[in-house]
């Protein structure tokens, strides 16, 4: 696709009436108009879903294709098991446990998550021993509550301690709108997640644990002579699905996190608030099929290309070029003629000395009013500390007029 660029530089001048905190964080912006020429055959890309909350992301470009209240806090239900598995995979990858490690089925695990519970179970026998490898299959394929509790107790000593591990890992991963109380997702008043966190978690699991991720596409698992099919309906809908999981609570309705590969691209969706398992499957399939047809890729910046400049305080130069480490591309609706907007946001001015390759801020891109992509930007070169005269002039400028910060293409 051919793109023409019409660029407008906006200067942000901070007047400092009290001279306080001269280097506080400021959003420094460059508005870029990206006028895209679309073919006359472009189709209508308007889409809506019956889900109360929804989020779809295309992974390669990081483009948000659809968002509907993705930060709303909901009960995760069985989707909390994605976090349970992340902790288990992390322990495996660290070598703290192995697939052959055996854990015993406690009465709590058997009664709360096993056959007596009436919920999702792998029918583990009381006081039997089960390997971590089998428990992983039970949790992922059968959404087994007993499998979750057995793993939690085996790894952490109790489900409560394991929930602390889940929350610690969530914080490390930047899942700031999630709180876990148990390993199963069974209803608890303080147990909450956002769809934004679930999508981020799904992407992390695929990227970080490829040796375990394939289990999410496993069609069935037999344990204790009981055959059960994978509960993810997307695996049987011929749309390229290879994971992840489903959940239901009376408060949040039917939910799903699904991942697919189609046409060389990877997509992740999270939906919640649907009325039935049938509607859940239908809406998930519909949003994937819409995404496959409604978007095309455009290149914004080449890898290593300078995309802006950040001001420098006290350096041998007054600014430093900024660039992304990889190509910046974006999926855009094939029928959307609205302008794209891009801002570089950073804490400024940067204070010398500055090393080359330092993360300095983020490039944010909008389609209309929707933020669809964020890409880190890095300093393209080093800037050493300037002499006393230069530093003094910068200080005077900052204290008397506020710093004039510009980003230029």
Describe this protein's structure.
By secondary structure, this protein is an alpha+beta fold. It has two domains: 3-40 and 299-405, Sandwich (Peptidoglycan synthesis regulatory factor (PBP3), Domain 2), CATH 2.60.410.10; 56-274, 3-Layer(aba) Sandwich (Beta-lactamase), CATH 3.40.710.10. 26% of the residues lie in helices and 31% in strands. It is built from nine helices and 21 strands. It has helices at residues 81-93, 107-113, 132-142, 145-156, 159-172, 195-208, 210-213, 277-294, 388-401, and strands at residues 3-9, 12-13, 30-36, 53-58, 63-68, 102-104, 129-131, 220-223, 226-229, 241-249, 253-262, 265-274, 295-301, 306-313, 319-323, 328-333, 340-346, 350-351, 359-367, 370-379, 404-405. It has a six-stranded mixed beta sheet. Strands 5-4-12-11-10 form a five-stranded antiparallel beta sheet, with helices on both faces. Strand 19 and strand 20 (370-379) form a beta hairpin. Helix 2 packs antiparallel against helix 4 and helix 4 (145-156) packs across helix 5. The longest helix is centred in the C-terminal third of the chain and has 18 residues, at 277-294. It starts with a strand and ends with a strand. Mean pLDDT is 85; it is low at 1-44 and 401-409.
Structural topology:
Blueprint: E1 3-9, E2 12-13, E3 30-36, E4 53-58, E5 63-68, H1 81-93, E6 102-104, H2 107-113, E7 129-131, H3 132-142, H4 145-156, H5 159-172, H6 195-208, H7 210-213, E8 220-223, E9 226-229, E10 241-249, E11 253-262, E12 265-274, H8 277-294, E13 295-301, E14 306-313, E15 319-323, E16 328-333, E17 340-346, E18 350-351, E19 359-367, E20 370-379, H9 388-401, E21 404-405
Parallel strand pairs: 14-18
Antiparallel strand pairs: 1-3, 2-21, 4-5, 4-12, 6-7, 8-9, 10-11, 11-12, 13-16, 14-15, 15-20, 17-19, 19-20
Helix pairs in contact: 1-4, 1-5, 2-4, 3-4, 4-5
